[in-house]
Amino acid sequence: MGLDDRKLAVLRAIVEDYVATQEPVGSKALVERHQLGVSPATVRNDMAVLEEEGYIRQPHTSAGRVPTDRGYRLFVDRLSRVKPLSPAERRAIERFLVGAVDLDDVVHRTVRLLAQLTRQVAVVQYPSLARSSVRHLELVPISTTRLMLVMIADTGRVEQRLVELPKPVPAADVTDLRRLVNEKLVGSRLSETPPLVQALVEESAPHLRGAMTTLSTVLLETLVERHEERIALAGTANLTRGGLLDFQGSLRPILEALEEEVVLLKLIGETEPSTTRVLIGDENEIDNLRAASVVSTGYGPGATIVGGLGVLGPTRMDYPGTIATVRAVARYVGELLAQN
Amino acid sequence: MGLDDRKLAVLRAIVEDYVATQEPVGSKALVERHQLGVSPATVRNDMAVLEEEGYIRQPHTSAGRVPTDRGYRLFVDRLSRVKPLSPAERRAIERFLVGAVDLDDVVHRTVRLLAQLTRQVAVVQYPSLARSSVRHLELVPISTTRLMLVMIADTGRVEQRLVELPKPVPAADVTDLRRLVNEKLVGSRLSETPPLVQALVEESAPHLRGAMTTLSTVLLETLVERHEERIALAGTANLTRGGLLDFQGSLRPILEALEEEVVLLKLIGETEPSTTRVLIGDENEIDNLRAASVVSTGYGPGATIVGGLGVLGPTRMDYPGTIATVRAVARYVGELLAQN
DNA sequence: CCTGGCACTCGACTGTAGCGAGTGCCAGTC
DNA sequence: GACTGGCACTCGCTACAGTCGAGTGCCAGG
């Protein structure tokens, strides 16, 4: 484990050069491009150690060195400072996000912005229902046996579900139902609603009981239990940058993974602490994404977190820059949400 | 233009073999695999004519022939019958689409189904607002100066917009506004609403005038004029089938095009007649998609068309099969919509 | 502990040769 | 006049040999 400062400097230089050039970097080029203060031969010795420890590797004998996933990990954890954003990027973020009217609008703008700034695939999760509370519930009669249940959450999300009633319900009863569910549920977090909904059914007048039961079923099953998460995606075209060198030749597994909402949620949805999470190559649990890295973080108004966002790219990525961008965008989005 | 029956048969054989094998097809292989009743030499003469007319070409001297876009066009127009669906496919469609509850659900299932059956990129347009009529408008107070406008269309689409009021509006007035807009607009097609909305503003009581004006602005601008279209996409991973032989080496332009909603709408949205539309390679107006073909059609309950759906793939695609699948799926979706 | 020197490795590139699929053309046949 | 068999030709593909050079590991000396 004898990684003295110079060896770390060599690793940092290798990572930076490789990220920039996309080509294995050799000892001679290294000393030329960085002020290491030693000769190529010395660097070679250091490289030998770094390779033995698993931080770099040679694609083939007599090629330069390339960082391993482990090497990137060390780089991210100990060798890089988060790059401050350029004023241009800062301006781009502001320009992109002002003028958003809708939650939909915010999410779409955000995901495109992220993709554009990082030049990678961007993923943004809509504010999670599980972390939202009910602002209003609306019942719209579609026919005598059908209601449209519209739920508006404090995070701006609006969800609707069709409710098929067991038997016709008069308009007056619909009004009663609407009043009851709103009285009971408005203001409470969705994760806390089950007992309330239960009580609602038990307390409701006999002639409303039937309708209230199916209504509660819809509420619980489709909105609370399998809490519908929504995801926006952009920038898949960026996967083709760098030819087929990244992603070991085939985009197939990546594209397949990106089509699975569950996978995407796993990637960016589980960020509990407010820190940025970086998953490098192999660290990723999803097999299809073993050749990719993910940088993700949570966002939300103020200190609370209501959803996640992040980007996915080749392991060979500009981590400091990407981390900075992801964080900055998350912060701006949070502020935007706080305003509403 | 001397294309006698045998030359057409040769063209058909070339298209079928090339689609199946993905390799340029030569005269000898042709007579072996198809009952043409003539010798390779004769076929060669026919091929020479077909090439002169621009229906096929040679990638390089001494390779077999490959159909040109023009060749595919002739094939689609005159040389192929729509393939009947296999019972398995038929069953797959039914199994996939029953149990859909939501419009969202229907669209998502449809797009995935299409992608799976055709093994290509599938695109489904949500029922167009322009072709929908208003079933109900709901106004939900968010704060004293903010309303959430929820529009439910007869096609099942639900759209919401935040309305920022110029000054606080009491709850009673919101009730009035809700009643007024519903009385006036429910049942009318969105494309016919502008004069109605105009009248609504002019006829409304003075104390409602201000709120009604901004409300009408939101209605007209965001829902009617730039009629918000929504699109679902699936199966991008299928682009990687056939290695990089299709799409002349780079997926980049295709992926870029697929990220633009406008482009997608252009692809599948303009289907006015109920017939299936096939765009082959160069016929496509979007430069990025000159290497691809699109098969699209309209769908809707009964005979009316409310939206489009289709698939995108390499020009080297199984046109008869794809056309059949796209049509069948569109028909099923139409039936599904008619039930609601 | 660092450095310069040196032998070695091995991928990338180049040029050559042989193979074979496929063609175009032509003379002969029905 | 249409079709066919035969034949010379083209040219991409593959294999192989040779060269080049970037990069390495190792070692002796400062």
Characterise the protein shown here:
The structure is a homodimer of 340-residue chains. With 340 residues, the first copy, chain A, is α+β, with helices and mostly antiparallel strands. In chain A, 46% of the residues lie in helices and 17% in strands. The first copy, chain A, is built from 12 helices and 10 strands. The first copy, chain A, has helices spanning 5-21, 27-33, 40-52, 69-79, 87-97, 103-118, 171-185, 193-203, 206-225, 252-259, 261-268, 319-339, and strands at 56-57, 66-67, 121-125, 134-143, 146-153, 158-164, 231-234, 277-280, 292-299, 307-314. In chain A, strands 7-3-10-9-8 form a 5-stranded antiparallel beta sheet, with helices on both faces. Chain A has a 3-stranded antiparallel beta sheet with strand order 4-5-6. The mean pLDDT of chain A is 89. Chain A binds chain B through residues 101-102, 135-136, 138, 140-142, 148, 150, 152, 158, 160-162, 222, 234-237, 239-240, 250-252, 255-256, 258-259, 340, and chain B through 101-102, 135-136, 138, 140-142, 148, 150, 152, 158, 160-162, 222, 234-237, 239-240, 250-252, 255-256, 258-259. Chain A binds a DNA duplex (30 and 30 nucleotides) through residues 24, 26-29, 38-42, 44-45, 47-48, 58-65.
